[in-house]
Structures are given as C-alpha cells and as structure tokens.
C-alpha cells in the first residue's frame, strides 16, 4: 500500500506492506482523510524526538501513518469477524482500538496505522454505515464534528448563552452542534477573520476579535444578566442561578486561567481544546462564583453516529469546514499549511489520488 509516513520531522509517501486484518477488524480503503490538530501535535513531538537523538540513530525513530478522521470502503472482512457489513459498504469508524496492554488511537500509534494510506484496518464494532447519498468527503468530517457534539452535550447545566473561544475545527464543530440543537445565543471569538466568517455562517450570533475586545464582557449583547455572586445575597432564593456556557477550544497556555478569572457567576466552563502543558488557576476565583470546570474528551458512540446524521441533514453547512482537498503526495505540504495559515480549517487528503 501507499502511505504517508511520519518519522521525525519528515512526512513522505512510502510503499508499505498491506495491513492484514485480524478477527474483529475490517480492511478498508480510505477515500478522504482529515488532518487534525492532534496530528499537528504529534508532528511537533516527533520533530522534538528527532532533535533529541544523534543523526546516526534517526532511522530507528518510530514510524507512524497518521489519520484518524476518514471515510472508507470495506475491501475485505476476515472470516472470524462477525458483522452485518459487506465488502463494498461505505463506513466511518471510531478510531480507537485495543492493544495488548491498553487502548490506542488508530493513526496516532506506531502499532495501528491510520487513514493517510491507501489501506488501513478498523474495528468492525466501532464502524458505522454512511447514510445513502452522503458524499465521502463530508462523511470524513464525522469524527471532528462528534468532538464538538460531545462538548455541547456536556454543557447541560445552563441553557445559555454560549461563548466559544477559538474557531478552529473543534470550536466550529461546537458551534455547529449548538446550532443544530437550537441552543443560543452563541458568541464566537477568534483572531482569524476567515474562521470568524465561517463561525457566522454556521450560526454564531455575535463575532468578536479577542485582540480588540474581550469575549467575556458582551453579556448585555447576548441578552444575559449575570447573577449575584452568591445566593446568600438573596433573601429568598429558589432554584439554580442562571449562568453561561463557556467553551475553551484553543488549548492556548494561560487561556483557562483567563476564563476562570473573568467568567460570570455560576458559569459552566467546558475545556475542549487540547492542552498538553501545565495550567495554573486560582481556585478561590471559581469558589466564590461557583464555577464548574469540565473537561471534554472525544465523544460517545451514539454521538459519533448522531454527528454523521447531522452532516447528512445539513450538508451545505458541513461543507464549510473543508477548505481544500489534496492528493496523498501533498500530505507534508498540507500539514505545513494547517500549521501556518489560519484560513485553512480542514484539509482532506485523498489517499487514492
């Protein structure tokens, strides 16, 4: 098979042995594979690993075939795999599988190659049929949109308003999910005018540039009045104090502390952006205003399926996420473009081209 292989700082297309699906697996042919922020983080880690070893030892660095967001056609089903799927079916798959010691993510593991290849393997039990008529490039958006749907579903404490900080793929997916659920108003904040424009098309009611104004002082424009600091200030308090939902989708260092410091009373903060570094917050800031901080990870299987159906229901909106489609040979340049150009949101690679 042909595959984009990440090793150290390099991503190049190589010919590798075809994967052999074991029991419970499906051998699939990816049509479109999205590049995720997790893939960019992996590349950074791989580059740091190359810098940490002598040049003579770099050939021994791990080799990873990235890609965990894809739509594919089933080309083989082992006899030992019990499934209702048939060869030729189109599927999207939850990219998690079991290793001998712990679960791993397909496309982020040296052991389980991903969708930036002409062939790969997925778990039959974690695969879902693509609805009739849904285009394969749109179906490849299921995984990232499921991340946004899960974040929106976690925000169950307050009706709104909703503030989404960061309009990368995760932030936009959250806006998409909130809008499909009829939840508003929605304020979106991002430095990029291109990403902000897409947030508005997806249904955000108010757009702000955080370089010019804070996203967390526009409550009057959202028709919301923050409650008093404590119910103790009310003579006869009943019920849950009104609060806002704040989605931190950037993962930028220091952002969580900024949100905790200025969030209005009783806000529900959902941390969605990948944040691999240490963060410092002052607990008292959250205590006196009874803030809730919740961390969002991936999604549930039913949310994955629901996200795919939402794409089928709103294909024109889902199509806004895709900013370019490229052949497998351009994988490295696609990674570079995503890292450098904020106007790029979701680049899809066609491993068959």
Automatic annotation (TrEMBL):
<dbReference type="Pfam" id="PF00107">
    <property type="entry name" value="ADH_zinc_N"/>
</dbReference>
<feature type="domain" description="Alcohol dehydrogenase-like C-terminal">
    <location>
        <begin position="169"/>
        <end position="312"/>
    </location>
</feature>
<dbReference type="InterPro" id="IPR013154">
    <property type="entry name" value="ADH-like_N"/>
</dbReference>
<dbReference type="InterPro" id="IPR036291">
    <property type="entry name" value="NAD(P)-bd_dom_sf"/>
</dbReference>
<protein>
    <submittedName>
        <fullName>Zinc-binding dehydrogenase</fullName>
    </submittedName>
</protein>
<dbReference type="InterPro" id="IPR013149">
    <property type="entry name" value="ADH-like_C"/>
</dbReference>
<feature type="domain" description="Alcohol dehydrogenase-like N-terminal">
    <location>
        <begin position="23"/>
        <end position="132"/>
    </location>
</feature>
<keyword id="KW-0560">Oxidoreductase</keyword>
<dbReference type="Pfam" id="PF08240">
    <property type="entry name" value="ADH_N"/>
</dbReference>
<dbReference type="InterPro" id="IPR011032">
    <property type="entry name" value="GroES-like_sf"/>
</dbReference>
């Amino acid at each position: 098979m042909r595959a984009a292989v990440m090793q150290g700082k390099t991503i190049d297309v190589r010919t590798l042995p075809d994967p052999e699906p074991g029991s419970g697996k499906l051998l699939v042919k990816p049509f479109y594979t999205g590049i995720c922020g997790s893939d960019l983080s992996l590349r950074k880690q791989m580059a740091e690993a190359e810098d940490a070893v002598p040049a003579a030892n770099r050939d021994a660095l791990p080799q990873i075939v990235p890609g965990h967001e894809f739509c594919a056609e089933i080309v083989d089903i082992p006899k030992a795999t019990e499934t209702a799927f048939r060869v030729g079916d189109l599927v999207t798959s939850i990219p998690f599988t079991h290793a001998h010691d712990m679960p791993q993510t397909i496309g982020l593991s040296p052991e389980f190659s991903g969708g930036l290849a002409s062939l790969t393997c997925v778990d039959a039990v974690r695969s879902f049929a693509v609805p009739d008529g849904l285009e394969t490039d749109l179906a490849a958006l299921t995984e990232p949109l499921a991340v946004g749907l899960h974040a929106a579903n976690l925000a169950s404490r307050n009706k709104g308003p909703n503030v989404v900080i960061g309009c990368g793929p995760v932030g936009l997916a959250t806006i998409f999910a909130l809008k499909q659920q009829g939840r508003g108003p929605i304020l979106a904040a991002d430095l990029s005018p291109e990403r902000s424009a897409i947030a508005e098309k997806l249904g955000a009611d108010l757009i702000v540039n955080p370089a010019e104004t804070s996203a967390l002082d526009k409550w009057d424009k959202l028709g919301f009045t923050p409650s008093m600091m404590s119910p103790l200030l009310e003579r006869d308090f009943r019920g849950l104090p009104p609060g806002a939902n704040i989605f931190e989708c950037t993962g930028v260092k220091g952002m969580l502390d900024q949100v905790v410091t200025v969030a209005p009373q009783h806000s529900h903060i959902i941390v969605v952006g990948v944040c691999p570094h240490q963060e410092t917050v002052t607990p008292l800031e959250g205590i006196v205003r009874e803030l809730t901080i919740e961390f969002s990870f991936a999604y549930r299987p039913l949310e994955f399926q629901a996200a795919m159906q939402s794409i089928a229901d709103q294909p024109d909106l889902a199509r806004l996420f895709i900013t370019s489609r490229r052949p497998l040979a351009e994988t490295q340049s696609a990674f570079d473009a995503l890292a450098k150009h904020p106007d790029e949101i979701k680049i899809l690679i066609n491993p068959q081209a």
